[in-house]
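Aim 2 progress update. The chain analyzed this quarter is reproduced below.
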Amino acid sequence: MSSSPSSTVGRPAAQVANATANTVANPNIRELQAESITVRIRWFGVVVGYLLVNAGDFINASARNTSKGELNALLAVGAVYALIDTVRSMKGHVLLAEFRILISIMEALFIGLLCYFDEGVSSPFRFYYFLSILVCAIRHTPKLAFATFGLHALSYSMLGLLSPTRSDDDATQMLLTLVFLGWAAWAIIALTALLKTASQRLSELNGELVENQEQLEARIRDRTKQLQESQALLVQQEKQAAFGLLAAGIAHEVGNPLASISSIVQMLNRRNADDYTKERLEMVDGQLTRIQRTLQELVGFSRPASQMATLVSTEAAINDALNIAKYYKRWKGKKVHTDFDPDIKAIRTIYDQLVQVVLNLVLNALDATEEGASITVRTRQEKSEANVDVVAIYIADEGHGIPEDAQAKIFEPYFTTKKTGTGLGLFVCRQLAQQELGGSIDLVRSDAYGTEFRLTIATDLTT
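Predicted C-alpha cells:
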C-alpha cells in the first residue's frame, strides 16, 4: 500500500530519504512491488478473458466461433494460478522465485492454448503475449525478458502451424504479429531497463542525501557539544576570576589591620616585659604569622593562572594542593596519605594548572568520604598508550563510589552526582589535563569500597 503525502509531514528529511533509498535499493522490496503489479495484471487478464469468452456475442455483431467450455476451463486454471500468486504476494513471497523461466514457459503454453481454442492466430488472446512480456520485463532481467519473448514467439509460431487455415491473410497477420511482438518486446524491455537504471540512480542519490544529512547532523552535534563545553569553561573561569577579586579584597582588608597588630606585638616584645607576657606575645605573633600565610595561600591560589611551562616538582605541587584543601570544611576527621615515587624528577609543566586539577580531585574525594576514612595520593612513572613517558597521579578514597549508570557521564559538563554540585569540576579538570598538561583524567575504579582517579601529565610540554 502506498503512503499518502501527508504521512511524511513532520518527519525528518533524513528519515524520508532513508526510507525511499531503502525501498529503491532493496531488491526484495522492489521485487515484491513488481509482484504486486504482476498480480493486478494477471487478474485483469482473467476478468477480460471471461468477458471476451462469455459476453462476446453481445459485444460483436456476429457470433464468435470459439470453444467456450475449453476456454472457460483454461481461464479457471488461470484464476486459480492468480489466486495462489495473490496469496503468496500478500504474505511477502514471490511465487516460483527460484524457477522464473518456468513461469514464462507456463504462460507461453497457457496463452497458446487460449488462442488455439479461440480463433487461432487471429484470436484477441494473442495480446496476452504482450502483457506477459511486460510483466517479465518489470520483474526480471532483460536476459530473461528476451528469453520469454523467444518462448512466446515459438508458442505463436506453433499455433500458426497447428491451427487450420481460415483465410489467405492468416500468414501475413501471423508475420506482422511476430514482428510487432518483437518490436514491442524490445521497447518494453528498453523502457523498463531505463526505469530500473533511473531507480538505481535515485537510490544512489538518496543514499548520498542520507549520508550528507547524517554528516551534517553529526557536525551540528559536535558544534553544539563544543559550544556547551566552551560555555562551561567560561562559566568556571568567570567564577574563578570573581573568587580571585574577592580573595584579593579580603586579603587587602584583613592584611592592613594584621600588619598594624603585628607591629604593635613586635614593639611590645622589644620592651622589658616579664616572661609570662613575652610568652603570650610570641603566641600572638605566631598566630598572626599563620593568618598571614593563609591569606598568602588564598591569594596565590586565586590569582590568574600562569600558562607558562616551568620545571615543577610534582611532590611540591601535590603538597601545595593538599595545604589548600586542608581549609575545606570536610577535611576534618579524614586521613590523607601520600606515596611519592622517589624516581620521579622535576617535570616541565604548568604549575598552577596542575595544582588546580589535583586540588579538585582531592576535594571530590573529601566530599565522597565520611569521618575516619582515608584518602591516598600516590605518584608513579608510567608509559602512555603512545609509549610516551608520563607521570601518573592516583587519588583514591574510601567513599561510597559513583553509581554505575553515572560513571560514563561524570566528565560531561553540568552533570553531577552531588546534591549541590555544579557539574563542572571534573569536566574542567579533564579539559585542563588534555589541553594544558598534555595528559588526561580517567576513572580507574569505583565501587562500594571507594573510587580511584588517575591523572596523567606529560613530563615535558615542550616536546
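The CA atoms of residues 102 and 270 lie 122 Å apart. The first strand starts at residue 310 and ends at 312. These observations will guide the mutagenesis experiments scheduled for the next reporting period.
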